[in-house]
């Protein structure tokens, strides 16, 4: 008999979590203005709002923190981090930052100007915010198949080469670079194939444009290339990672995902002009070049996490748990972005809350309902996150409206996945009774979903 699958680690430390009552949750979500970001962590039973900075570090990482060099300039921790990044990616120039959006802020301060157009595959919220905040345009060139949540294709996060070529043919003089997000978070944690990365590189070379990878989950992307793309089944994750980054000019990374640290990020590039142009902004916004926005101990943990999480067993354990939750939702007939992505399940709210019009934000409504049901905190990746069009100021309803259930790495067991699945089933079973959504009471002009205030619509 074949042995069942088990985790590639054992538990060394635990943290208690508390269940709450329905009455408590009703009061708490009201006080939070129906925005789960505004809940207190102690008011949440199972927290799936993000996989960013919420993972459990390894014993090697904790040991590395004890050896952190906190020197202001020239810390040994920085050089350990730089050595690991260069070993994995081939990029010579490294700028540490406190997280991914800081890396974007530093690099885009140099690269993005008013009137620019930055094509890519479903820019995530901070990426889009840093582009649009500079009065530039984030142009989505994701393949159309990504919008069909029930379609099963292996690389649903791909850039559409025809859309990208059209953008460059029409606007080459306004395009400073092409960005590819690996994996494609907004499209449902979907991977990008090596073949697609080669196609993007070829188009970029034709128009003499650099390519930047948004690399928060690059290791998960490499796992999917290994398991889904012909010719890569016998290559190691590290070999695939190096081949991926050989097709890019640089990267930004929120290390809080695939490096499994609580805080950290960086810019890495092979272009000296990018490094020279960005480093002044690092000093201005983050800190000196050999610590950026990070402590020495965090840089040590980050370097070790990059090494550990570019090994197959660690990634397999993580992605198998996402697949486990997907299979449980399949049992209940609950629609999500298929196939299951690397870091989360993206539930298709528009196919569940069919009585809630898009103007009343179905995915946010589903997010609130799941919290009320069992104290589970997910995150809307949909019409609220999409913000308003910067020109017309109208809500953008053209994309997907999803409830993201982002699973922290090495934190929850499959018993927790069972609770999540059954709680969602309970909401799914009463979906016909949910006829009204929420409306916006107050919103920020950019990246509104973090602080938006909402109220239920009463009719």
Q: What ranges have pLDDT less than 50 throughout 5 or more consecutive residues?
A: none
The quaternary structure here is: single chain
Structural class: alpha/beta
The CATH superfamily of the largest domain is identified as Type I PLP-dependent aspartate aminotransferase-like (Major domain)
Relevant terms:
459 residues; alpha/beta; 14 strands; 2 domains; Aspartate Aminotransferase, domain 2
Brief overview, please?
By secondary structure, this protein is of the alpha/beta class. It has 15 helices and 14 strands.
Descriptive account of the structure:
By secondary structure, the protein is an alpha/beta fold. It folds into two domains: 22-47 and 312-456, Aspartate Aminotransferase, domain 1; 59-308, Type I PLP-dependent aspartate aminotransferase-like (Major domain) (Aspartate Aminotransferase, domain 2), CATH 3.40.640.10. It has 15 helices and 14 strands. The protein has helices at residues 22-31, 59-66, 76-89, 100-111, 125-132, 161-171, 194-206, 218-228, 237-245, 272-285, 296-308, 312-332, 349-352, 362-374, 414-429, and strands spanning 46-47, 93-97, 117-120, 137-140, 178-181, 211-214, 250-254, 265-269, 344-348, 376-377, 379-381, 402-406, 438-442, 453-456. A five-stranded mixed beta sheet has the order 2-8-7-6-5, sandwiched between helices. The chain has a three-stranded antiparallel beta sheet with strand order 9-12-11. Helix 7 (194-206) links the parallel strand 5 and strand 6. It is globular, with a radius of gyration of 21 Å. The termini are far apart. The model has no long low-confidence stretch (mean pLDDT 96).
